[in-house]
Design brief:
Largest sheet: none
Distance between the termini: 35 Å
Structural class: mainly alpha
CATH architecture: Orthogonal Bundle
Order of helices and strands: HHHHHH
Number of strands: 0
Number of domains: 1
Helix content: over 70%
Oligomer: single chain
CATH class: Mainly Alpha
Number of helices: 6
Shape: globular
CATH topology: Arp2/3 complex 21 kDa subunit ARPC3
Radius of gyration: 16 Å
């Protein structure tokens, strides 16, 4: 019982962090070369959750972050909501098996994060292309967004590596090895 309560408490805290980051990032205008592009800072928390608790928990945090963040920013069930939801779910589905490879030493969390950013961008473009019924959007923007996924993925990966170390020392002081860069 205590273990379940502890898990739920950590999920609530991590979801709150993700929602706050999502909301703040949505409010900040960033000078990016493609309209609507964001750094994806809330994905730092999603990656951390996948590393610590697995795919199911990562999906839970990602979906809750999207729903609550969209409610707070006034975009619930709008175009941005569906883009965010599809991107978050796709990133989780790509990052979870990549984290398993990272735990075996085949990948780093930086590469896992870049893969997640690329999957996030591809899913968002696929949904946007389907909504506006234009493959040109997908074909035209994906190469640029793939290039942008590298620096944003590296940044979120570095932040996740740092937070994983801090979290493991604070929450799991005697157990588990950290996955480092």
């Amino acid at each position: 019982m205590k273990r379940n309560l502890t898990y739920l408490t950590y999920m609530a805290i991590l979801t709150t962090f993700a929602v706050v980051i999502h909301t703040v990032e949505a409010a900040l205008p960033l000078p990016m070369p493609v309209p609507g592009v964001r750094l994806g800072l809330a994905n730092i928390i999603t990656l951390l959750v996948i590393v610590l608790y697995g795919l199911r928990s990562g999906l839970l945090v990602s979906v809750l972050r999207t729903i609550l963040g969209s409610l707070l920013t006034g975009g619930f069930l709008g175009f941005g909501f569906w883009l965010s939801l599809s991107g978050g779910v796709a990133a989780c589905l790509v990052m979870a098996p990549a984290v398993a490879l990272a735990k075996r030493g085949y990948l780093s969390l930086l590469s896992v994060s870049v893969l997640g950013a690329a999957a996030h961008n591809l899913a968002q473009l696929a949904v946007a292309s389907a909504i506006i019924a234009s493959r040109a959007l997908l074909q035209g923007y994906y190469p640029l967004l793939l290039l942008l996924a590298v620096p944003t993925g590296i940044f979120t990966g570095l932040a996740a590596i740092y937070l994983e170390g801090v979290t493991r020392r604070a929450v799991f002081p005697s157990g588990g090895m950290a996955i480092t860069g």
